[in-house]
Structures are given as C-alpha cells and as structure tokens.
Amino acid sequence: MADLTLERLSELRRIAEAATPGPWWVDGWEARTKDGDRFIASIAPAFQGASPDASCWEVDANIQHIAAFDPTTALELLDALTAARAETERWREKYEALKAGIEELIRHVRMVLPEVVISSSATKDERLQKLPTGRVGR
C-alpha cells in the first residue's frame, strides 16, 4: 500500500486542487474537460509516426485511468479517506476506553472475589465451576 501519510495526502490534495476540475473524458489518446472542450492531457506519441512504448491496449487503459481520476474525483476520494480515518480513530478511542473499563472491573472483581479466576478462554460452564458455591446462582 502506498505511504499515505498526512503529508502525502496534503500534497495530493494540493495537486488535485491546482488542476482543472472534472469531469474529464477520453477523446482518442487525450483527456478533455467540459471547459470549452479543453485539452487536459495526452499520452499520444510526441510526433507523427512515433510508436508509444506501450501497446495500444495499455495506452487506452492509461488514458481511461487519467480521465476517470480527474481532480474532482480525486478530491472526493481524499475526503472519503480522511473521513474513514477519523471514524477509525473515534472507534479506536472508544475501544481503548472500554478496554480500560473492563480491566478496572476485573481488578475490582479480583479484590472482592480473589478466588475467582477470570479467563476469556474458559467456557461459561468452566468459569462458573471455579466460583465458590453459594456465590453464583445457576
């Protein structure tokens, strides 16, 4: 996976914001935009008669890619990634808070019932069998 650090995402955003907004479309080996049918990019050979390094299928795929990932689309993807990362961080914080709460609860249970063995790998029946009689109802 690409190294999508905050700095790299900021740079990608700066590049996308500086480019001609989309949508773009394919016209032969060129990408064009709605602004007066403006020419955006070409992957055609630099001069008549030159042959590209890639096959015409690769050239077609490349220009399709350029047109599909216009700046408007790139900015929407960057926004979605930023939002997803923020949501992930919110859930991580909730997880950490719950984990700390559970650890605190386990400490309290061990103080009140030191003979209780708390194990997440034991089955419910195994955990109940370890409790002294009279302390847990079945």
Radius of gyration: 30 Å
Secondary structure tally, helices: 4
Q: Which structural class do the helices and strands define?
A: mainly alpha
Number of domains: 1
Q: What's the mean pLDDT score?
A: 79
**C-alpha end-to-end distance:** 51 Å
How does this model look, in words?
The protein has helices at 6-18, 56-68, 71-112, 124-129; strands spanning 24-27, 30-33, 38-42. By secondary structure, it is mainly alpha-helical. A hairpin with a 4-residue loop joins strand 2 (30-33) and strand 3 (38-42).
Summarize this structure as a short list of keywords or feature phrases.
single chain; mainly alpha
Short synopsis of the structure:
With 138 residues, this protein is mainly alpha-helical.
Write the layout of secondary structure elements.
Blueprint: H1 6-18, E1 24-27, E2 30-33, E3 38-42, H2 56-68, H3 71-112, H4 124-129
Antiparallel strand pairs: 1-2, 2-3
Helix pairs in contact: 1-3
